[in-house]
Amino acid sequence: MDDSGISTEISHDEFDPIGTLALIALYFVVLTLMWLFTYFVEFVGNAPTPTVLL
Amino acid sequence: MTDLFVDEYPEQARLVRAAFLTSFVALGIGALFGVIQALHRTGVFRIVESTTYYTVLTGHGVFLVITFTIFFLVGLYQWAVTDSLQRGPVDARLTWSWYGLMSVGTLIAAIAILAGFLDDPPDVLGSELSADVLFTFYAPLQANPIFYAGLVLFVVGTWLAGADWFRTWWAWKRDHPGERIPLPTFMVLTTMIMWYISSIGVAVAILAFILPWSLGLIDSLNPTLTRTLFWYFGHPVVYFWLLPAYLLWYIVLPKLSGGRLFSDPLARVVFILFVLLSTPVGIHHQYLDPGISEGFKFIAMTNTMFLLLPSLLTAFTVVASMEHGARQRGGTGTLNWLRALPWKDPAFTGMALAGLVFAFGGFTGIVNAGMNINYLVHNSLWVPGHIHTQVGTAVALTFMAGSYWLVPQLTGNRLVGRQIALFQVVLWFVGIVFMTNSMYRAGLIGVPRRSAEPQYAFDYEVGVGSMTELDVQLALGGVLLFVSTVLFLAIILLTAFNTDSDPLVDGTIPPALSGPEDSPRVLDDLRVWIGIALVLVVIAYAIPLASIVDRGGLFGPDVGPFPVVVDGVMYLQHGVAYVGVLIT
Amino acid sequence: MNIHAYERLWLVASMVLIVGFIVTITYGTVGLGITMVDDREETISPDDVDEDDRFQDPRVEQVGENEFEAYVVSMTFLFQPDPIEIPANNEVTFYVTSRDVIHSFTVVGTNTNTMVIPGEVSAMTVEFDEPGEYGVVCNEYCGPGHHDMEGSLIVHPEDEYSLTELSVDAPDQVGPGEDVELTISIQNGLLEDLETTVDVEVGDETLEQDVTVPGGETEQVSVTVDGDDLEPGDAEWSASVDDEVETGTVTIGDDADDGGDEP
User: Fold this and answer.
1) Within-domain flag for C239
2) Do residues C130 and C205 both lie within one domain?
3) Beta strand pairing call for C218-225 and C180-188
4) Does the structure show a pLDDT above 80 at B430?
5) Which of B49-63, C92-106, C162-176 comes out lowest in average pLDDT?
6) Is residue C40 part of a domain?
7) CATH code at C228?
8) Is position C189 within any domain?
9) What is the pLDDT of residue B570?
10) For B173-193, how does the pLDDT look when each residue is reduced to its tens digit (9 = 90+)?
């Protein structure tokens, strides 16, 4: 049984992964925002943090 | 229809089945231990004493991240090498020897761990049979020597497995001069190179220090040294769990999506990056350790951050391969193609959900890599949150989904209960979302990991929600994951006995869109990468190790053993110590 | 190598992310002054912890203006001292070592968190701005009683903080009509002078005496209660300075006589 459901063959040159680019751009934004939140709100806000004697 | 794997390579199929069987038995026990912990530490239901919790925890760790994952790995890799080189091993006796050695090692370690449940464990080799030291066995906590001996046998078994696959490849190369290494075999060989380089650390830690010390041959050791050697191995081992999942994502997932791998060259680059960067990063597990300078920690941090690169590249390649499949299946639009994916196929859906969880877990890994931010999360419940999203889902769910595709080919039997299998993978996803949501949030407010009763005299400051809500989510998630595991094991068991059926699986792997011919041949010159990897390891570890030995001595600043045995004498000792403290 | 344009773009974006993370962490170190626990302290054998100046008597000490040091010992399954008391808005350096296995010293709800490894001393300098009581836990598995390992850290408002220790030399017994003399030693652990009042109670008699103890020194105050004001029999006494209190009992009158009077 063929359950792959392939209706068209798309070769390398015909394929432009625009959907992947969109998803990965979204991932980039999400990673950046979560990082900034976790570092500057969760971490820096969790004082006191060991620091150098100035 | 092509021949099934089981018909073409019956002997190999038997070995892969045996490896999967061991793996799944461990999965069942590990999952049972997991749900016991989820209910215990949240205070929902305590079936064991809190002191016995740590026996359960040790079993959960060792059976899942050593036995379940690595036995699955050797089975999968045996399949991958055989299938992609289209030949069996040079000598099948070697193959069965490493399987036997790994099994014996596991059994010995398991006996030591499970003896923790006995009220009065017997003496073996001069000390009580027990191994409540968790998967990390940090000295000077001490287990019975047979626990360490079992681990050694197991690791030697994996080394022989690697040697077996290299031997098969060399034999293949003689028959196919000038050909590129088939991608699945390339992945197997690079994984094993990484494993050889990294497992030296744990081998030295056990053979040179911990095992002789547990036998009483040496009196003292340097805990910082053995801990550093452990983490030299302890980070690459997570890639040892992960890379078989990567193999399935690169080789099988594009096919399941109805497409072809987007780029074979980048897949090779990714695996080489793992060979190079997996090991010189282990110190990032020791950011809060005294005795290691900040400079070494900073170097480990930058290396770890660059180790993100192969995973970020993988995200693109794998998603693009899925998109290719979706578009071949008639998918259109910028994101609408996602609907065209075969979501009714449990193998596909399981792997896709695993990938989604991995993307989020990648973020939490970045936080763990972030040196100073480690003050926030170190050893909090955040860390097992990360482990359960990555190993516990990205890897475990991919293995389960991959089994739905592979087991019919290994048995010649049709998968039983496809709908239930689909439910099972979705249930796992729901379970892990509940459980890790709780773990991450609880970790950020300081709830410790590895604790039977993380309820103290003080109250945690829960920002959003409440402690009860977090506990309920963790317990609920744990129960759902356990139910999901039971369903998986039942489906596989029924499939194994579902003889006289047609497997309905097409085992062929379509070629990549961009094949190996698009990449430079040097990628296949494994000696080059071994050389560079060793240089990087020496740069990252020579000075820190020298500094640790210089500070504390090879055998430590006189640190004696602390056997972990739960009995009255121990409590008496602690009681006396405590009273002594109160008096002085 | 044949790499798709989008994938090249993602490669560049990935490098931007990686460098961005490294820059953030470097900012934490350089800009915010966050330091990692490191190898600045000498190693110490767990067997020598009892002989070490810092750890034989785990305590908090003032070492400079607005600078304190806390010497903490962790062991299965407790921390010493417990509670640890420090002032707010002062730099406190914690030195933590282990007597036995690997532990952690973790002040819950803060970034004050370190591994404690036998043979090593972890040093962390922190400044608590918010007074209150914080939980201290061990978050590294250290044996079957791991979950019982808990201590507490009390951060006092700066102006209410003292490192005063009190000891009292009092007679157990005085003859009938004799004066009772208490000698009270007040040790001021702070570097600043301590100006305070000693309150003494013997039986129903109360006395007060002002005292100034120079920083880092001990002053003795003697208080005498007239024997004629005291009833024969056992009298409770107490001496207090700020929050420190010492108590005891003194027997007034002849033991033998007292015994004889009892029915």
Assistant:
1) yes
2) no
3) antiparallel
4) yes
5) C162-176
6) no
7) 2.60.40.10
8) yes
9) 52
10) 999 999 999 999 999 999 999
Check A19 against B316: CB less than 8 A apart: no
Flag the least confident range among B43-52, B62-71, B434-443, C175-184. Answer: C175-184
**Chains in contact with chain B (at least 3 beta-carbon pairs closer than 8 A):** A, C
For residues C65 and C155, membership in a common domain is answered with: yes
**Is residue B394 predicted with pLDDT exceeding 80?**
yes
Mean pLDDT of chain B: 94
| Three state DSSP letters for chain C | CCCCHHHHHHHHHHHHHHHHHHHHHHHHHHCCCECCCCCCCCCCCHHHHHHCCCCCCCEEEEEECCEEEEEEEEECCEEECCCEEEECCCEEEEEEEECCCCEEEEECCCCCEEEECCCCEEEEEEECCCCEEEEEECCCCCCCCHHHCEEEEEEECHHHCCCEEEEEECCCEECCCCCEEEEEEEEECCCCCEEEEEEEEECCEEEEEEEEECCCCEEEEEEEECHHHCCCEEEEEEEEECCEEEEEEEEECCHHHHHHHCC
Q: How confident is the model at residue A31 (pLDDT cuts 50, 70, 90)?
A: very high
Quickly state the pLDDT bin for B3 (edges 50, 70, 90). confident
Q: Which residue has the tokens 């196919």?
A: B176
Asked if C61 and C134 sit in the same domain, the reply is yes
Token pair listed for B562: 């602390």
Find the CB nearest B324 among A10, A42, A46. A10
User: Mean per-residue pLDDT for B300-312?
Assistant: 96
Note whether C151 and C177 are same-domain residues. no
Mean pLDDT value across residues B298-320: 96
**Residues C121 and C89 both lie in one domain:** yes
The predicted pLDDT at position B463 comes to: 83
Q: Which chains touch A (3 or more CB pairs under 8 A)?
A: B, C
- Tell if the CB–CB gap between A17 and B319 is shorter than 8 Å: yes
Chain segment B464-495, per-residue pLDDT in tens: 889 999 999 999 999 999 999 999 999 999 99
Domain boundary among C160, C179, C200: C160
Q: Does position B108 have pLDDT exceeding 50, yes or no? A: yes
Beta bridge partners of C209: C198
pLDDT of residue B386: 98
Query: If you measure CA to CA, which chain C residue comes closest to A30?
Result: C17
Whether residue C94 sits in one domain with residue C183: no
Residue C14, classed as helix, strand or coil, is helix
Are the beta carbons of B363 and A35 separated by less than 8 Å?
yes
How many domains does chain C contain in total?
A: 3
Number of domains in chain B: 1
Residues in chain C: 263
C117: amino acid identity, one letter: I
Structural domain harbouring B344: 5-583
What band does A8 get if pLDDT is binned at 50, 70 and 90? Answer: confident
Residue C24 resides in a domain: yes
Domain with residue B58: its CATH number is 1.20.210.10
| C54 and C156 housed in the same domain | yes
Residue matched to tokens 């912990």:
B37
Considering only alpha carbons, which residue of chain A is nearest residue B254? A4
| Cβ contacts of C6 on chain A, cutoff 8 Å | 16-18, 20-21
Co-location of C212 and C252 in the same domain? yes
Residues of B in contact with A20 (CB under 8 A): 316, 319-320, 323
Closest Cα of chain C to B403: distance in Å?
30
**Sequence-distant (≥ 6) Cβ neighbours of residue B235 within 8 angstroms:** B198, B278, B279, B281, B282, B284, B285
The domain boundary residue, chosen from C130, C160, C190:
C160
Domain with C52, as residue range(s), is 46-160
For residue C67, which residues of chain A lie inside 8 Å, CB to CB? 53
Tell me if ipTM is over 0.90: yes
Contact yes or no for C179/C232 (Cβ under 8 A): no
pLDDT at A2: 46
